[in-house]
Design a protein that fits this description.
The chain is mainly α and 122 residues long. It has six helices and three strands, in the order ααβααββαα.
Length: 122
């Protein structure tokens, strides 16, 4: 993969849905429906991933080496062989870590803003 596509900074900021997908697979491999459920649960239903959009994003994330199809599957009696499982790559972890740090800096700045501190006191 060309270095320019692997560069962390070139991929930031992440789109919100991409961030949520990466967060969902950060804890381990998940199949598409499980990703949809996890994102809906983590966001109290505010972010919804419809199948067509989700699988389009998953293809895009595979092309940019942020996720990879995983061979790590549950036991056969707990699995459906038609499911595709996705896992975070090392590059995907670096990008996710960088995005979290970027968002933390924004939140820190917002919390230290004099105008916001004043607004929270009233």
């Amino acid at each position: 993969m060309p270095d320019k596509l692997r560069s962390v900074d070139r991929l930031l900021p992440l789109k919100p849905k991409v961030l949520h997908i990466l967060l969902a697979v950060a804890d381990g491999p998940r199949h598409g429906y499980s990703i949809m459920q996890e994102v809906a649960e983590r966001t109290d239903g505010h972010v919804r991933l419809w199948p067509a959009a989700l699988y389009g994003l998953l293809r895009e994330l595979e092309k940019t080496d942020l996720i990879v199809e995983s061979d790590n599957r549950p036991a056969a009696d707990e699995d459906d062989e038609r499911r595709r499982y996705f896992a975070l790559t090392p590059h995907g972890k670096r990008v996710l870590d960088a995005e979290v740090r970027r968002l933390e800096a924004i939140v820190h700045h917002a919390r230290s803003s004099r105008a916001l501190r004043k607004a929270y006191r009233t």
